[in-house]
Amino acid sequence: MSKDLLVTIDSEGPLPGQLRTGGRPARVELARFAELAERNATSRDYERVILVGDGEALEQHGFAFATAAREGGFTHVRLDTSARRLTQAQQVRAVVMAGVNEFSVGLHGDCAELHDQLSGRPGDFAKVQTCLERLSKHEVRVVVDTIVTTANLAALAQIVELAIAKGASRVALWSYLPAEDTPETRALIVSLDALIPALRPAIARCREAEVEVVVRHVPACLLGDARDILDNTRPDALDGVRPGRPLAQFNCLHEAKCEHAEACLGLHHAYVNAHGWELERLQPTPRVRPWRERDRSVERTTGGAAGPRGHASWLALLGPHAERVAGVSLTRTEARYPMQMPDGTRFVLVLSARDDDARTFIQSASFNLAYTDVEGPAQERAIATFVEPVLRTIAANDDGSLCLDAKA
Ligand code: SF4
């Protein structure tokens, strides 16, 4: 359980880490939040509440949410809204008086043209500047979120400089993770070979200026001595994850042998769709602790045909390839088949409920099919060649009679 709680007052503003508003409207009613806040005053389950909103509901109830948060014993009350709400000195003072002591502000360019294009809000850059100036007059914490894309990568140093100059308490550098994987959003995803060299001086500059800096959604193994600033924490959400908005999916094919896999998310699927699994670029740190497979129910057998009872229909999906798997394990959300290649490379073939937005090699009627947990010498292309006929057989055999629950 996180110590941070995300509360969506309305869906007019982008969620933290997103450039723009997306998803269908969803909101938390004031009464529901007030109830939770009252409990929190005693339980102290949460230390921080992040109030997200930019629409009518924020206008009408924003102060009441802040008051409820203050009374609920949250040490940190953060408001994540658009800069246009915080350009008047009086407005800012009133919000601070209501109990908000942290603000997150998106700054994605060093000039109006770039920032406004990325945020999709003409005139927003000027408002961000004014907002930051207003906030600098108060004893509050200001988090500047910068989402690094192919469009603003070249300007990253100047953006960070601007954030520092405007009084940022903390700079969060997000590797762009699109809410929707489309050709347009995919083109904005920065490849790791361009991202890492740009992040290094930006991180160094923040440290030099004694401004806290974190990076998000970046593989830990590429951060060198900056690994400690990787922040992949996610707040809990109080009914606030917008319905219909898929949670981002992450994987690393090295996770079985990497010591950092528990803290590092690896690559998000939209990244993989754009730039591949980066098997050669990622640098797993050999494990000193044993790898605990996420699925503890693996039933290894001496061959597919002698598969565990009750799992026969899942093995039948593989047709003749069932002979090549070491068994099948089933959970509510996944079917996992450990496999081994002739050169000794091992990996796990994974079936999960069909999700058109998730990264996958191939889809069948009911499933997304992929592989993970690679251990051994084979390169990405060789594994893909080896596994492809198996995946195609599963897709051909899936008549829709088997199903898995979607991941929460
Ligand atoms: S090898 Fe994979 S799990 Fe390990 S640090 Fe790199 S990206 Fe993360």
TrEMBL record:
<dbReference type="InterPro" id="IPR007197">
    <property type="entry name" value="rSAM"/>
</dbReference>
<keyword id="KW-0408">Iron</keyword>
<dbReference type="GO" id="GO:0051536">
    <property type="term" value="F:iron-sulfur cluster binding"/>
</dbReference>
<dbReference type="Pfam" id="PF04055">
    <property type="entry name" value="Radical_SAM"/>
</dbReference>
<keyword id="KW-0411">Iron-sulfur</keyword>
<feature type="domain" description="Radical SAM core">
    <location>
        <begin position="21"/>
        <end position="149"/>
    </location>
</feature>
<dbReference type="InterPro" id="IPR058240">
    <property type="entry name" value="rSAM_sf"/>
</dbReference>
<protein>
    <submittedName>
        <fullName>Pyrroloquinoline quinone biosynthesis protein PqqE</fullName>
    </submittedName>
</protein>
<dbReference type="GO" id="GO:0046872">
    <property type="term" value="F:metal ion binding"/>
</dbReference>
<dbReference type="GO" id="GO:0003824">
    <property type="term" value="F:catalytic activity"/>
</dbReference>
<dbReference type="InterPro" id="IPR013785">
    <property type="entry name" value="Aldolase_TIM"/>
</dbReference>
<keyword id="KW-0479">Metal-binding</keyword>
<keyword id="KW-0949">S-adenosyl-L-methionine</keyword>
<dbReference type="InterPro" id="IPR050377">
    <property type="entry name" value="Radical_SAM_PqqE_MftC-like"/>
</dbReference>
